Every structure is written in structure tokens, then in C-alpha cells.
Amino acid sequence: MSLYKTSQKIYKLNLDILNPKIQEFINLNIGVSVSKLALQKNPFPTVEWILILNQIAAKSKAKDKLPTWFSTPNIIYPSKISVEQTSSEITALYKSSIISGENLIDLTGGFGIDDYYFSKKIKNVVHCEINTELSEIVQHNFNHLNKNNITCHAGDSNETLSRLNTKWDWIYIDPSRRNDTKGKVFMLKDCLPNVPENLDFYFEKTNSILIKTAPILDISAGISELKHIKSIHIIAVDNEVKELLWELNKDYSGTITIKTVNLAKEKTDTFEFVLDENQLQPSFNLPQKYLYEPNSAIMKSGGFDQIGLFYKLNKLQKHSHLYTSDDLIPFPGRIFEIEKCIPYRKNEMKNHLENQKANITTRNFTDSVENIRKKWKIKEGGNLYCFFTIDENNSKIVLICTKIK
């Protein structure tokens, strides 16, 4: 069985792209519209114009996402979409905090960002990539990044795993969805490699497996397909969930720990809990002085009761996933001071919000943000934050707030 990291075509490794004048041209055009540049005549006829344009587009994407690669001379980039799909350096750094040991094999190496950070913690790292040209690009880049403890193997990673006949401290896998699964429910069995199908084979080669999946994967679906799950890490960057990490151990059969992480420049928020069907029931209350909205990683985790219990907050309503208290407390998410709580009625809306400027959020509410704005002529922006939701009495309410965090 062939294992594909991506269906995107990677152009052939052409070292002529490293010509100093071409590299200078690429750097001078970072952020410039490639569609506009494409209308120009190629100033370097010895190299295909499309290759140069691809370098400009991909390197432009790497500027913020991959600063180490961006700032290192003579890096060669694959297609722009490959850079878009690869891990960011900030999430790769987090992944490296999970693993330890002497050796690790990455069965779906891709552009190699994760392996670069794994190599800072692991003595020997093996990068497997089905696409020979991409494997060559990655090996070239590792040389320029002075990474001498990463070995690149092109070809089917299962075959590489069998041929090397090594006991690994870790196997890392980032399965990709097959093209014929578009529109279907995202299941691991629909990805390449098919991890559930190969799991017993992998556990012959290691005791510890780390799997990265896209955030679209339903957590309960992943749990139903896998076994020996020790932890699930939900990783957000600036309050946008980027990836799920599944930590498996061959000998583990206990409860699953959910770890939520929101990586941000100012502060990294973390919250974890154990999946347990016998959780205590949360407390409910009408809106008090402060309002709390969990970050996106917590929202993805489904730990709505656990977060309220841990921080001793009251939920507004079972399905609203907003919390309240009279005392201000630190919280992994946004915090607001409630200025007014009004019923969602015509007269109240006309008196308080019609023709005003406000930021609108709906939680467990029947109407959309777009319809609310249109109906009450509310402009976007300003310092007011309005939450349209339902309270514990199942009454429609609007919380008019100012933001604290």
C-alpha cells in the first residue's frame, strides 16, 4: 500500500533556483502578487518561471508560519499549498515537548517541520516521504539548517518501517484524507496511512505513537477507531484550533486525559480533564457580574461541565456554554463585565441596541449574527460586546458587556 502525505505535485529539485541573483529576486518580491508577476517576462531563462513564482508564493506563506526556514539562506520550498498544510513552528515546538527518547520515525514526513523540532529532543530521527522530489527538498533543507541527526527515506513508509527493523521510542504519523472522501464524515480509516488498520503493525515496532489530525475530526469518532489512547491534545493558536494530537501507548488501558492548549504571544492557556462518564453536575445561575467564554480549544474538547466545575463558575444554561460569577477570576478564554442583561424583545432591542455599533456573538440562539444585525441595524465593531443566548429559565436574553480580557 502506498502512503501519500499529499496529493499535491512537487516540482523537481532544481538547484539552479539557488543562483544568488534568483534568490535576491525572490527575496525582493516576498508578498508581491504572483499573478501579477506571472505577466512579466522571466528575467532568468535558465530556470522555469513557474518554479521561481512558486518559490515566491511559498516563501511568502512561510514568513510568519516558518520563521526559521524563512530566515535561513538557500532553503528550497515545495508548492505554496504544501507550506499551508504543514505544521507551524509554534505547534511543532509543542509536539516536541510530548516526546523523549533515543529514536523516532515519522511515517508521513512532508516538509519536515515537526521532525526539525523532534530532532532537538531525540538523538536520531527518520523522515519518511512517499514523494521522492519532496524528500530531496527536505534533505537539502536539513543540510542548510545544520540538522545532521535526521535521515530522509523516500518511498512507502510501511516498507521503510519493515526494512529498518528497529524498535522505535516513538512513531509519529500525520495521516492525510484521501481525495475520494470529500464531503464524507472525516474518519481515520479514510486517511492515508490507514492508522486503525495498521495499528497492530505499528505497535510491533514501538510502544508509543503520536498521531496528528486536523481539527475537523470528531473526538468521539477518533476514540472509537483507536485504542490505547493515553491523552488527546487540542492545540489552538491565537484561539483558532489547528490540530489534534493523539498520544497512544501500547500498555495503556486507563482513562483518557484531554489537554487543551491555546498558544498565544501574550500567554499560553492550558486546561486538562479526564474523560469520565460519572462527572459531577455543574451549577446554573442567571447572569451575574462577569461573563466567561472558553477558548476554542476548550470548546472543541467538549469539557463544558468540567471547565465550570474547575473554576467554580455557574453555567447560564446547559447548552449555552457561557459562564458567570460575581467575583472576577483568571480564566482560559475571554472575560467580560456584564453592563446590562435585557430580554430579547422588540422594545428592549430598540431602546438599547437598534442603530448601535457592537460586536455580536450567539450561543445556543435561534437567530444568526447576520440576521440580528440586519433586523436591528446593528453595525459591526465598537467597544460593546453583545451575547445573544438563553438563560437557565430558557428565556432569550442579550448580555451587553465590555471586554476585560
TrEMBL record:
InterPro entries linked to this entry: PG_1098_Fer, SAM-dependent_MTases_sf, Thump-like
Domain spans labelled PG-1098 ferredoxin-like: 290-332
Limits of the THUMP-like domain: 333-403
Stored Pfam families: PG_1098_Fer, Thump_like
Name the UniProt record assigns to this protein: Uncharacterized protein
